[in-house]
Amino acid sequence: MASRNVVVGSAVGLHARPAALIAAAAAEYDDDITIRRAESDPGKGVDAGSSMMIMTLGAKQGAEVVVESDNEAAVNEIAALIEQDLDA
Questions:
Q1: HPr domain spans which residues (predicted)?
Q2: Is the domain 2-83 a CATH 3.30.1340.10 member?
Protein backbone atom coordinates (compact mmCIF):
# COMPACT_ATOMS: atom_id res chain seq x y z
CA MET A 1 0.00 0.00 0.00
CA ALA A 2 1.28 3.44 -0.93
CA SER A 3 1.22 6.11 1.75
CA ARG A 4 2.24 9.75 1.91
CA ASN A 5 2.25 12.25 4.78
CA VAL A 6 1.33 15.80 3.75
CA VAL A 7 0.57 19.13 5.40
CA VAL A 8 -2.79 20.79 4.69
CA GLY A 9 -2.18 23.94 2.65
CA SER A 10 -5.67 25.45 2.38
CA ALA A 11 -6.29 28.46 4.62
CA VAL A 12 -9.62 27.01 5.79
CA GLY A 13 -8.23 23.50 6.13
CA LEU A 14 -10.04 20.54 4.62
CA HIS A 15 -13.41 22.28 4.61
CA ALA A 16 -16.14 22.53 1.93
CA ARG A 17 -14.37 23.73 -1.23
CA PRO A 18 -11.06 21.89 -0.71
CA ALA A 19 -12.90 18.71 0.36
CA ALA A 20 -15.12 18.84 -2.73
CA LEU A 21 -12.12 19.25 -5.06
CA ILE A 22 -10.26 16.40 -3.38
CA ALA A 23 -13.33 14.13 -3.48
CA ALA A 24 -13.87 14.87 -7.18
CA ALA A 25 -10.25 13.94 -7.95
CA ALA A 26 -10.50 10.76 -5.86
CA ALA A 27 -13.69 9.75 -7.69
CA GLU A 28 -11.68 9.52 -10.91
CA TYR A 29 -9.93 6.41 -9.53
CA ASP A 30 -11.42 2.95 -9.11
CA ASP A 31 -9.12 2.31 -6.13
CA ASP A 32 -9.96 2.95 -2.49
CA ILE A 33 -8.20 6.09 -1.25
CA THR A 34 -8.24 7.09 2.39
CA ILE A 35 -7.17 10.19 4.30
CA ARG A 36 -6.51 10.25 8.03
CA ARG A 37 -4.99 12.60 10.57
CA ALA A 38 -1.34 11.68 11.04
CA GLU A 39 -1.79 11.33 14.79
CA SER A 40 -4.70 8.88 14.32
CA ASP A 41 -4.35 5.14 14.56
CA PRO A 42 -3.70 3.42 11.22
CA GLY A 43 -6.90 2.17 9.66
CA LYS A 44 -9.00 5.08 10.93
CA GLY A 45 -9.01 6.89 7.60
CA VAL A 46 -11.99 8.32 5.77
CA ASP A 47 -13.00 7.80 2.14
CA ALA A 48 -11.24 10.45 0.02
CA GLY A 49 -14.13 10.25 -2.45
CA SER A 50 -16.55 11.75 0.09
CA SER A 51 -16.29 15.47 0.79
CA MET A 52 -18.47 15.05 3.89
CA MET A 53 -16.14 12.41 5.32
CA ILE A 54 -13.08 14.53 4.54
CA MET A 55 -14.59 17.44 6.48
CA THR A 56 -15.13 15.20 9.53
CA LEU A 57 -11.34 15.00 9.93
CA GLY A 58 -11.32 18.59 11.16
CA ALA A 59 -7.90 19.06 9.55
CA LYS A 60 -6.93 22.73 9.67
CA GLN A 61 -4.19 24.50 7.74
CA GLY A 62 -0.83 23.11 8.84
CA ALA A 63 -2.26 19.79 10.09
CA GLU A 64 -0.49 16.66 8.93
CA VAL A 65 -2.60 14.02 7.19
CA VAL A 66 -1.81 10.66 5.62
CA VAL A 67 -3.09 9.65 2.19
CA GLU A 68 -3.19 5.89 1.54
CA SER A 69 -4.15 3.67 -1.38
CA ASP A 70 -2.95 0.67 -3.36
CA ASN A 71 -2.61 3.08 -6.29
CA GLU A 72 0.52 5.21 -5.90
CA ALA A 73 -0.57 7.64 -8.62
CA ALA A 74 -3.81 8.28 -6.72
CA VAL A 75 -1.88 8.90 -3.50
CA ASN A 76 0.40 11.37 -5.24
CA GLU A 77 -2.44 13.28 -6.90
CA ILE A 78 -4.56 13.57 -3.75
CA ALA A 79 -1.53 14.47 -1.63
CA ALA A 80 -0.57 17.21 -4.10
CA LEU A 81 -4.08 18.68 -3.87
CA ILE A 82 -4.04 18.65 -0.07
CA GLU A 83 -0.74 20.54 -0.03
CA GLN A 84 -2.17 23.36 -2.19
CA ASP A 85 -4.23 26.32 -1.06
CA LEU A 86 -7.43 25.23 -2.78
CA ASP A 87 -9.25 28.34 -1.58
CA ALA A 88 -7.25 30.69 -3.80
A1: 1-88
A2: yes
